[in-house]
Amino acid sequence: MTVNDRARLLDEIRILEFMAVELNLYLDNNPNDHKAIRDYNSFTKQLMAVKDEYQRRYGPLSNFGTALSQSPWAWLNDPWPWELD
Amino acid sequence: MWIYEKKLQFPIRIKNPNPKMATLIISQYGGPDGELAASLRYLSQRYIMPIPEGKGLLTDIGTEELAHFEMVGTMVYQLMKGASDEEIKASGAGPYFTDHGRGVYPTSAAGNPFTAAYIQSKGDPIADLNEDLAAEQKARSTYEWLLRMADDPDVIEPLKFLRQREVVHYQRFGELLMKVQDYVESKKYF
Ligand SMILES: [Fe+2]
């Protein structure tokens, strides 16, 4: 079922992005923590890969030149985040 | 420059409308300790931060607060959406409905529209960071009061996530305040 697949990929993106946000805020105060930077880069690589897969299947997650579009203009694909995400 | 990401930071799927709860949660959208105030506060205060850690942290927490602003707006939207006019009337959400229908408007639960008077940007990094620490605590208590009035797990889970983020932000601002204090002290003597 594609709806479930989409939700599953989105959840994976959320989890990886959450790790990146947490490490990012920590690194803002601790810019010399090399272990944390390694973790940040590792989560970021995984996040970029899952986002690529999501965007190829369901359209862009972000616009203004940050992701390619299918035709017609896939940015407008439903659902928007507030519509039972 | 900001780039929008077409997804919520934390999933929100509220199945049962609850217009009264919508008009309480709206306070974290446009109320005194809400997410709009938080974002505006940090993104405005960041210009005068004297060390890179401060410019970075205020930019990044200010940005995360915008994601929370979207989460709260989504909760209000979903709680109002399926409610009938009768349900809205019976629930006591009539005053909000009169002014905003089922739309999302930045106001406090008590009906005060959003104002920049909720925030300060003092041109003094120590004063600003002390305000930020208090702001995170006030946002945390607002989420706790909301949690006391919520009974639907679809509402409780995102509220708990948002409450937890305030605790983390408070922690990060506390660490930053010590760094900025050290920096200001070192400037005094050398
Ligand atoms: Fe916060």
What can you tell me about this protein's structure?
The model of chain A has no long low-confidence stretch (mean pLDDT 95). Chain A has one domain (2-76). Chain A has helices at residues 2-29, 34-58. Chain A has 85 residues and is mainly alpha-helical. Chain B is mainly alpha-helical and 190 residues long. Chain B has one domain (19-105, 124-187): Up-down Bundle (Ferritin). Helix content of chain B is 67%, strand content 0%. Chain B starts with 18 loop residues before the first helix and ends with a helix. Classes of the chains: A mainly alpha (85), B mainly alpha (190). Chain A binds chain B through residues 7, 10-11, 13-14, 17-18, 21-22, 24-26, 28-29, 31, 60-64, 66, 75, 80-82, 84-85, and chain B through 3-13, 52-53, 56-57, 60-61, 64, 70, 73-74, 77-78, 168-169, 172, 175-176, 179. Fe (ii) ion is lined by residues 38, 65, 136, 139, 165-166, 169 of chain B.
Keywords summarizing the entry:
heterodimer, A: 85 residues, mainly alpha, 2 helices, B: 190 residues, Ferritin, 0% strand, elongated, binds fe (ii) ion
Using the alpha-carbon principal axes, give the shape of chain B: elongated
Structure annotation, total helices of chain B: 8
**What oligomeric state is this?**
heterodimer
Element order of chain A: H for helix, E for strand: HH
Short recap of the structure:
The complex is a heterodimer of chains A (85) and B (190). By secondary structure, chain A is mostly helical.
Which helices and strands appear, and what pairs or packs with what?
The complex is a heterodimer of chains A (85) and B (190).
Chain A: H1 2-29, H2 34-58
Helix pairs in contact in A: 1-2
Chain B: H1 19-25, H2 27-30, H3 35-45, H4 52-81, H5 85-91, H6 94-100, H7 125-149, H8 153-189
